Amino acid sequence: GKFAFQWGRVEARIKTIAHTGTFPAFWMMPADNSLGWPNNGEIDIWEAIDTDGRAYGTVHTNWTYNLGKGGNSGNKPGIDYTLWHVYAVEWNATSITWYVDGEKVWTYNKSTDQNALDNGQWPFDAPFYIILNQSVGNGSWARPADESFTYETLFDWVRVYQKPEYTGIDDVLTDAEHTMVSNVNAVYDMQGRLVKDMKSGGLYVVDGKKVLAE
Predict the structure, then answer these.
(1) CA 144 from chain center: how many Å?
(2) Can you name the residues that pair with 126 across neighbouring β-strands?
(3) Tell me, what's the pLDDT at 199?
(4) What is the DSSP string of 127-190?
């Protein structure tokens, strides 16, 4: 209920401690999950397990999970988890592509087969929200947790980039510009309330246009 988006690039700078039983993740779930998991989809941007030094990227859908059609995961080996790395996906209307430190890892494409689409191969035309977590395994994929060990994953930052056609933003105003606009125009926040001042980082409606105050 805090932030969700549809299409764009999302990335995070992360480092973790590789250890038996570790299972940290940077992932996304659908804002509307009314059909239940995995029918509305899941996008795993990055997962690490145990000490294998791989960055995993995965999607889960009815097509891949319930129907077992596969083709839903890729990974990059040779990751030194003592160092910071940037994990990202670029997501649009027809594909999701995974990156590690700017290097393409793999792509999941929307099918052109109507039967696959009818059976939930591509539930990714809807807003998703971001999750960052440190969890531990139960033996089903990552091994059971080492209860004598303190697991830790550090998330330096998370960023989302979107093209104007996705955001609907008509203009971006500098600090000086949004101060001037507030002085001469009626400014409304995204809840439709009349406001006196535009705050940096906020979205507003001015003269019928959506603007971002830097």
Answers:
(1) 27
(2) none
(3) 84
(4) -EEEEEEEEEB-SSSSPBP-TTS---EEEEEEEEE--HHHH---EEE-HHHHHHHHHHS-EEET
Closest CA to 92 of 8, 4, 27, 5: 8
Low-confidence residues of the chain: pLDDT under 70: 183
Token duo for residue 204 = 């507003």
Query: What is the DSSP pairing of strand 209-213 with strand 171-173?
Result: parallel
191: helix, coil or strand? coil
Does the active-site annotation cover 42? yes
Contacting residues for 194 by C-beta, under 8 A, at least 6 apart: 186, 187, 188
C-alpha 7/C-alpha 90 separation (Å) is: 8
Helix H or strand E segment including 115: helix 114-118
Question: Residue 201: its pLDDT value, please?
Answer: 81
Q: What is the pTM of this model?
A: 0.83
In order of 91, 164, 171, 187, the CA distances from 202 in angstroms are 24, 16, 12, 12
Q: Check if the beta carbon of residue 88 is closer than 8 Å to that of residue 11.
A: yes
The vertex-110 CA angle with 70 and 122, nearest 5°, equals 70
Whole-number average pLDDT of the chain: 93
Which of the residues 42, 90, 152, 165 is marked catalytic? 42
Type of residue found at 124:
F
> Which of these is catalytic: 47, 103, 147, 214?
47
The 3-state DSSP class for residue 3 equals coil
Name the residue type at position 146. D
